[in-house]
Amino acid sequence: MLRQLSSLPLLFRPAGPLHRYHGSLIARFTTTTPASLKQLPPRPKPPPESEIEESFLKGSGPGGQKINKTNSAVQLRHIPTGIVVKSQATRSRSQNRKIARELLAARLDELINGTQSRTAIVSEVKKKRAASKAKKSRRKYRKLAGEKGREEKNEEEEEEEGEEEEGQEEARLHEVEGKTKTTESNNAQQTQATPQGNETR
Amino acid sequence: MPRLPPSVFWRARREISPMAAQLLPACRDLESAANELRWIRQHVRDTRSPIPPELRIWKLVEKRGRGVPLQYVLGTQPFGDLEIKCKPGVLIPRPETEAYTLYLASLLCKDQALSTTPPPSLSILDLCTGTACIPLLLLHALQRYPSLSQTSLYAHGIDISRHAVRLARLNQAHNNHLLSAPSSSSISNHVDNNPKLNFTQASIFSPNLLPILQSHSPQWDVLTCNPPYISASGFRRDTARAVRNYEPRLALIPDAQLAGLASQCKCQPEDVFYARVLEMAAVLQPRRVVLEVGGWAQALRVVDMLSEELMALYRTVEIWRDEPGAGEGRKREVVEFGGREVRVRGEGMGRVVYLYQGTEEGG
Ligand SMILES: C[S@@+](CC[C@H](N)C(=O)[O-])C[C@H]1O[C@@H](n2cnc3c(N)ncnc32)[C@H](O)[C@@H]1O
């Protein structure tokens, strides 16, 4: 089982040049927590179709003309790991199939890369950002109270610069967030059905 | 239909919103109520109206809660990558139809990939076309396929209903931007290669129709048909209330007068359209015939209706289940029928009877 997991990354490594994949891995290890979204690792690619078992969830019954339910839910099972993801985010089954594959790619990335996975890094960046925002508002408050320090001011300027750079990526992050949020709050669940390699981490 | 327990309404109100509780009688469970409420809100956000959004949402929820199908409430149904407009009076496209239409498109593409010279044209005849969901999705899928870029695609839809034909044309216009060939092929300065699509309002039982169809195309490549196939008793017994109350009977149950024909062709009243379509197939001899059916028993009855002439013409006879592509390569299911091997594909209920003049590649 252990061996199976360690050989796993090979199965769904992106089709592109390997060194790029390694490159991004190394980058991830050196910058433990990127301050800017520019340093985010690329979105993980879904595994090949031959490793996916797809099913469409719908009620029992005759189907066809006799029923007109809006059953657009798509469930995927990744055969090598047993990971199951489900999406019913949209009314379109075609769209849900794409979303489910993105979800599966993210779950596999989390399984393999753990704290260095894209999901983990995105949430780390978000946490940092929220903290810095809180800090800034505290500072603004203090500024109003008239106890501004010189050192702090420099720090602030630096941060503001960083903030602007991030601004452009903001929309992209929100898109990611939106997707995960919808998928978690109301329409797609991810169940980790017997992840065979959990004990290795 | 059993009454829902009050506790479900409580939970909907508390965990989602009072509007979800209002959707429950139609949606039947919390998950779909939450989904549909989200889709209604999205629809209101994405479309313009002088009416305030909150009021619109409330109105749509009220309508849906009364049992009107969501597709009529929102006016659309996604179908593959297309958006099909839906209006009361015309049947809403079903996910099973979407699944086999995409599967058929993949077969046609595979077939083209194998042939050394791309055919100059490919023609599709869709009987009982309704919203035109089938020919529109086929054209869309085929037109994007590189090896068909030199092939001119043509489809023709037939429906008896004036409302259907009008909606079919509306859907053609609505999806026109997705039907034109990719811009790259226009660089090579070829003749206008956009797919063509026409509709005719006619009964498929009309004796005048066959000569007209023959004049449109000397050789049809594909004949598709999703005819009314529900029996009168099946309509009462196991057809959903939203279907019975809101979708047109004309689209679901073969007309009683036509049922009189059934005794002549020695078939059950709900199978009478298949008798006619097979008769047409014997004359038009399309290379492939795709007939949607209401289940396994009906699929077998349709296979049984094949004349010796048709058996000789179509070397491949298959039954497709709801998901024809599922489980490919993992299992092989076959039934023996009248000394003929009938391949069964996919998973789910029996959904399609498929005839092909050639032999299918990739067993
Ligand atoms: C089950 S619906 C199929 C609609 C569409 N093809 C689909 O798959 O969603 C059957 C259609 O057949 C049409 N129809 C009924 N009787 C007909 C007849 N005698 N000739 C032609 N069309 C007929 C109805 O108007 C209806 O649109």
From TrEMBL, chain A:
It comes from the Eukaryota. One of its GO terms (molecular function) is translation release factor activity. Its main location: mitochondrion. Residues 144-153, 169-182 have a biased composition (Basic and acidic residues). It is found in: Mitochondrion. Residues 154-168 have a biased composition (Acidic residues). Residues 183-201 have a biased composition (Polar residues). This is RF-1 domain-containing protein. It comes from Achaetomium macrosporum.
TrEMBL record, chain B:
The keyword Transferase applies. It comes from Achaetomium macrosporum. This is S-adenosyl-L-methionine-dependent methyltransferase. PANTHER family: HEMK METHYLTRANSFERASE (PTHR18895), MTRF1L RELEASE FACTOR GLUTAMINE METHYLTRANSFERASE (PTHR18895:SF74). GO terms for cellular component: mitochondrion. Keywords: Methyltransferase, Transferase. Transmembrane segments: none annotated. GO terms for molecular function: methyltransferase activity. InterPro entries: N5-glutamine_MTase (IPR050320), SAM-dependent_MTases_sf (IPR029063). The keyword Magnesium does not apply.
